[in-house]
Design goal:
It is built from 5 helices and 4 strands. It has 160 residues and is an alpha+beta fold. The protein has one domain: Haem-degrading domain (Beta-Lactamase), CATH 3.30.450.
Length: 160
């Protein structure tokens, strides 16, 4: 019996040591994503704008999409693309548009992935310094307003 226990312990020890070495990554929980999206929609609605808001995970996978009543049909795709772009590039979409506009050599970024939307209104979501996703807003009269609503969503969840 003792020999069996010793053998089992010897065989399982490397497995537990390997399991401890697995990497871990921060992520955006669904409830926080929903809260941020609702706050962004509400911020734009308070200003009279019907928008769509998308939240994507760091991987680019869509977690949440909210479309306000009477938001234009294009707003879902726009918000999702902006969120994807921010999560993928780790930066705000307005800054990225300026980066490309000021550096013609970087114009190829626009065609790098068909899901990219390089217009103001997308912000990366960082919590505790870790990039965990992106938020995108589409449908306000300007990208700056979209970005302000996105910022309201991030403020609601304490994101950077």
């Amino acid at each position: 019996m003792i020999r069996n226990l010793t053998l089992a312990a010897a065989l399982l020890a490397p497995v537990s040591a390997l399991a401890q070495d697995l990497p871990t990554a921060p992520y955006l929980p669904l409830d926080m994503a929903q809260t941020a999206a609702q706050a962004a929609v509400a911020a734009c609605a308070a200003e009279g704008h019907n928008v769509s808001v998308a939240i994507v995970a760091r991987s680019g996978v869509t977690q949440v999409v909210l479309r306000a009543d009477n938001a234009g049909p294009h707003t879902v795709g726009s918000s999702t693309g902006k969120a994807f772009t921010s999560a993928s590039m780790g930066r705000d979409t307005a800054g990225l548009a300026g980066f490309i506009g000021d550096n013609p050599a970087n114009d190829g970024l626009r065609d790098m992935d068909e899901r990219l939307v390089i217009q103001a209104g997308g912000l990366p979501i960082r919590i505790g310094g870790a990039l965990v996703g992106g938020i995108g807003v589409g449908g306000a009269p300007s990208g700056d307003i979209d970005a302000t609503c996105a910022r309201a969503g991030l403020d609601e969840i304490g994101a950077e």
